DNA sequence: TTAGAGATGATC
DNA sequence: ATCATCTCTAAG
């Protein structure tokens, strides 16, 4: 029983500039074999070559190695001493670019999400932030480097026929201190699951 | 409803 | 010292 009906995005979807991939990921579905799924409603693009806010800007390290790998894999990193965040790797191997998933609209397995985030009161608090959604979906360090295209390792990004919003406008990314000039954050307008300011 | 600060540890 | 964050607490 799949978490949600849909077709996994092909490798070629990810093998493009993250500035193109990020807005197209809106309204796609992040699904887990555990039965949990959420619609992607907020994303940010990061580009290793020209983006001082990207983890990959200063070259390859043990931590960011996944993001320098082939497209369509999941880069998961640990930050602020307690949080995990989840990206999709983009462009060809060696580029070091990706898309940070910042918020989901919960659509399946909501009871499991609540178990993973017991303090939460409203559904819209379950996945409305990059570290919240990894908690709710059960994503942590063990998921760094898994293949989202083959969907053989428990997670995939699905197209279920819902198109991205039209007339999107990029906004400033959240929580960074450099690269502020790049307006590389996109979200589904009006969706209550988008992270708060 | 909003603002401020603590938590907590890997990274470079 | 910084960090692609969250949550609690106190004040308004």
From TrEMBL:
Keyword presence, Chaperone: no
GO terms, biological process: base-excision repair
A Pfam entry, by short name: Pur_DNA_glyco
Keywords, sorted A to Z: DNA damage, DNA repair, Hydrolase
CDD domains from the UniProt entry: AAG
A GO term, aspect molecular function: alkylbase DNA N-glycosylase activity
Mitochondrion is among the record's keywords: no
First-level EC class: hydrolase
Family of this protein: Belongs to the DNA glycosylase MPG family.
Protein name: Putative 3-methyladenine DNA glycosylase
Organism per entry: Dyella tabacisoli
